[in-house]
Amino acid sequence: MGLLDSFEKGLERAVNGAFARTFRSGIQPVEIASALRRELDTQAAVVSRERILAPNTLDVFLNPADHKRMLSLGSSLETELLELVQVHARKQGYSFAGPVSITLHARDNVATGTLRVESETAQTADVSWQAAVDINGRRYPLTKARTVIGRGSDSDIPVADAGTSRKHVEIVWDGERAMAIDLGSTNGSKINGQRFTKAPLSAGQSILIGETTITFQVIPKSSRPARREPDASTRIFDAREYGA
């Protein structure tokens, strides 16, 4: 499985995990995540029969005390918020005009325990996409059109898993679309619990080979969209920070 297999499970983990134990009052990370989801739903616009465009630049305004507590969570909060936004967008069928960024602002006129979200669609003309896979906490960029993963040292990405074949699965990436191909492995490969021989692969989907989970990612690579300059007390969370 990937970092999250549903938005609801992510919220449950945020509420019951270390975040909730850290703060007994004031804003909770789960409330920021819910507000971001509502903002996407409220501002999503149908631009064609095949495309629903959601805002990709999201600004969260917090009381300075809440803002300081959120920053103390560091990269854990960054990862959680970005993943939740992207998972919700996939679930709802939303697309983005450019890289997703989330900015937290401290504002004196926002009461403790409350927040305000503003958003816009910031399009970047020169967005390119980098495919990668996450395996055992490490990210591997896919630099070839075909990448073989398996137990053998001659695989492009070797995995230390006795339940996998030497060349177990291949990921084909053409710059826009991805395909997973089982290479005749002994124990088979699964996506969403179903065995496959060849299957299309979407960002965030996970492949199980042996006891190893491979999560496929597509990362936007571009210059940051033009936008207002953040104030000095702002931390910017940007999806591009999670590239290799």
UniProtKB/TrEMBL annotation:
Domain of life: Bacteria
Residue ranges constituting the FHA domain according to the UniProt record: 147-196
Keyword Phosphoprotein: yes
Entries under Pfam families matching the protein: FHA, FhaA_N
Protein keywords: Phosphoprotein
CDD domains: FHA
Biased amino acid composition, Basic and acidic residues: 226-244
UniProt-annotated stretches for the region Disordered: 221-244
Signal peptide from the UniProt entry: none
Residue ranges of coiled coil: none
Record InterPro entries: Cell_Proc_Reg/RNA_Proc, FHA_dom, FhaA_N, FhaA_N_sf, SMAD_FHA_dom_sf
SMART domains in the cross-refs: FHA (SM00240)
Protein name per the record: DUF2662 domain-containing protein
Organism whose genome encodes this protein: Microbacterium mitrae
